[in-house]
Amino acid sequence: MPNGMSHLFIPGPTNVPDAVRRAMNTPMQDHRAPDFPELTLPLFEDLKKILANETGRVFLYPSSGTGAWEAAITNTLDRGDRVLMSRFGQFSDLWVDMATRLGLDVVCVDVEWGKGVPVAQYEQHLADDPSIKAVFATHNETATGVASDIAAVRRAMDAQDSDALLFVDGVSSIASVDFRQEGWGVDLAVTGSQKGLMLPAGLSILGVSEKALEASTRTGMERCYFDFADMLKTNDAGYFPYTPPVPLLHGLRVALDLLFAEGLPEVFARHHRLAEGVRRGIAALGLELCAAGPEWYSDTVSAVWVPEDVDGAEVCRIGFDRYRTSFGAGLSRVAGKVFRIGHLGDLNEVTCLAALASAELSLADAGAKVELGAGVAAAQTYYREALAERESRSRLPRADESK
User: Fold this and answer.
1) Beta strand 301-305 with 338-342: parallel, antiparallel or unpaired?
2) Checking DSSP bridges between strand 7-9 and strand 325-329, what pairing results, if any?
3) In a designed cystine with 199, which of 89, 124, 193, 309 is the match (CB 3.0 to 4.6 A)?
4) pTM to 2 decimals?
């Protein structure tokens, strides 16, 4: 039997903290019992805090994030509605595919993989076509390690006085990087349990604005399992229209407690710090990111171009077989050309150093000419400086203490 633990550095599912795993190891309970709302009602309210959704609602579905994608569309749009989307990676492509298969009239802007939501082109489309009923934006494209500016999308919509609904895929961003549903005017925000929320897959979370809730009372697209109306009838009392995954709800309670104990601003700062260390390590190895520039860098996943004579899939295979490390493989258009390091959820500086060390070994064994230790050393230097600066700031007196 191999010694030690296996290492998971894919961008989801992410590592589940021990406290969360223990919370899910619970006897089955009656999900119709009088005390069940004591668990569920605070979950709904606390998820609103995660999303920064003050006046809307949050729905929980027993599904992957894809289920919340479908719920968002079928509850608020009609077949034939004209919608604006963009495609710049595997997951934004899948969302376009779903919208098309559900009968929407999709205007799709194809973007170079390595860049994100094309805000200027969105604004031009909205100016040219006031019939657009919805705008879709992938906040973090997991396949390419690209983050997009959702606030800028809202500004573009407002500049054209667009009344369209704004849909955002935040599956690999929410609970890891700053997200402001209300502040950015996001009408439907999608995420899943298996990323920043540090749970197994099986729950999708959908934040819904008041505007989107009102739209759901007027649309005619068929839905049953995902119907907002059914959820509203039961959620208000703390129940669900069908059997919920109770162990996941107990795990969610502890995961949220961990995030709030750390403080969301610190959660976001930690993810940025860890991601920056990984990026500096990759650069020190002489490799480049799939993200086309710093303005597109993701703080939850880095997709790394491998040298032309190296197979990215082989890097992943070696990592798994020899070093008990799982990296994300390249998907679709970048299959074999990149490998991905997920750096979100329950992790810290030393965790990320382990990811870089294993990546160096796997790259070298796959034939890449990298200097072993160079990436780790660059990240170590950055982490030491960043943590020292953080500690120095924490020792500074607050304004009310210096008087």
Assistant:
1) antiparallel
2) parallel
3) 193
4) 0.95
